[in-house]
Amino acid sequence: MKKLDYIDHIDALRAIAVLLVILFHLDFDFVKGGFIGVDVFFVISGFLITRILKHEYETTSKISFKNFYSRRVRRLLPSLFLMIFLVFIAAFLIFAPSDFMRLSKVMLTSSVAVSNFFFLSEAGYFDISANLKPLLHTWSLGIEEQFYLIWPITLVLLFKIKQKVKTISVISFLFLLSLILTILTNYYGAPEFLNKLLTENTDFYKDQNSLQFFLLPFRIFEFLIGASVVWLYPLKIKSKIAKEIIFVIGIILLVLPAMFFSKDTPFLSTLNIIPCIGVAILIVNGKTSLSKGFFENNWLRKIGNISYTWYLFHWPFIVFYKYIIERELNIIDQLFLFILPLLVSLVVYKYYETPLRYKTYRISIKKDSSLVYFAIICILLIVIVRNDVIYKKGWTWRISDTNIGLAQKLKNPEEFHKKNYGGYGFTEMGFLGKGKGNYTDFVLIGDSHARHYAYGLVNNINKNHKKSITASNVSAFVMPGFKRKGVDDIRKVRVNYILEVLDLNPQAIPIMSYDWYFQMEVNKILNDSLGVFEDINISEKGYEKVINKIKKFHKLIGNRKTILIGNVPRPFSSVPIHKSLFKPKYLQYFFPVKSVYKQDSISLKTNTYLKNYADKNNNIYFLDPVDVFCNNGDCIQFENGEIYYSDGSHLSKEGSLKFVEYYEKEILRILEL
To answer: Is residue 406 part of a domain?
Structure first.
């Protein structure tokens, strides 16, 4: 079979794609939309795979699935298994038991190309918790390998019926079907049954956003854009000026989304078609006088060659580095994390990946059967290690028993978060502590960031001052005008309950507390003029919309005195305290647990909006947790043997009591006004 001509300018496009992703992961502000690099990879994959299969069928009248999958396995698995092995070693030395256990589960799903389903059931790709997931980036490999399973068979069927139906027509139809599905899901949300089928953790599920991010059906149109341009390549345009203009258009469609898209961009899954079209244009347009220096740049071509390897290794370096330093990256960190994985990737590509991939090398895996045995052995080893790590609770023997006495409060790290949480053991709806009468003095409204004050309120306001406290908590905004999939019916029940208990005592005071930022991400808000629910963008307008709904709720409850509690300060870029305390002894020797961290920008921004609202409105009182736990931007996690957090954002029982004791007089004063 005659070999296809090598399209060398695709190497430059691969380089651009991987550079965008890496710069985005390194938190460079000028590429807030750098995640589109993955979409670019999908287009390139769709083009190359379809081109190879089409050429093989036209040349031999058949497609050898054995040869196809052998090439794919040789290309992808050796470096993937090496990366997983090295990540496991690093996690052994660095990760707390809970993170080590979780990693062992992901190792298996990553090795069998289904990690995208695993991550779908957790927090989203853009969440803070992503900084604790060194294998998160394997979700895209899962999608690619799932596409490789279905696309060759689909193409064979299309080629065989090409006399009746044109292949490109069917591909165009499938493209439109996937795009329409994405648009409809963007607008109306995913069907409820699909949410329940694919997600386990509804507290973290991000409506349709995660669904569209992690699942192949919402990415197929990107692969098919690449597949369809196979029939257009090379683009035959005689006018040199026209080709130069097309090149510029392609660059613009690729670069501008990388600069101006962000995780908060509305209809992001649909708008990703823009850079996909841009890279498709650059593929089919080929080289021009203007693009020649760009496409033939030796550095870009080398980076393109190692793009897969660099993509595999860059993210674990970032995760483990952040886990150790427990702070935001500065420019030195960013340069270090750019260069070191690049150098490692160059070595791996030259001395490991390439020799194993090609049969002409002396140390290569020459037989396909040996390749299969290699994959099976690696997966079996992962299964054995995974089961042992889970059974032995994350190999707790790695943990020091002398961490200034803090970790000894709970020997089981899996129970640390659960039992130290300030809301542990308290009901989500009903009396937390009864006072002198049958009515309530305070109604605690909100999500888990309201309930973590339960311990402090009961052990101070209730026990010391005999004030009755009722809870009505659910992981959603417990106010009219909001909607969240999976919990909306519960939310309505809680709203009605609040109104009932407030009616029993005209002096009763609602205490509203949320993880405001998180709830703005996962709830939709009612547009009163249009009568539809919309996403709440994390912006000044987004905060204004939420505050307007608080105003309406305040009127609904009779403009009575209301207490608002702001976001708890948290170390967003750091390891949560319940993980820090259980770091392996090898790591703590060099990097002891930090008791102080810098206040995060999110709590600062959110609390400023809430405080301004309270200052401008009668009967609204604002309590700022930052005043309790921070001083001039330095915030405390623990002191004198007392741990104030149960995880990265929730207060422990001691933290809950510290907050209430700090505001005890103010809370009672508001009640007596």
So the answer is: no
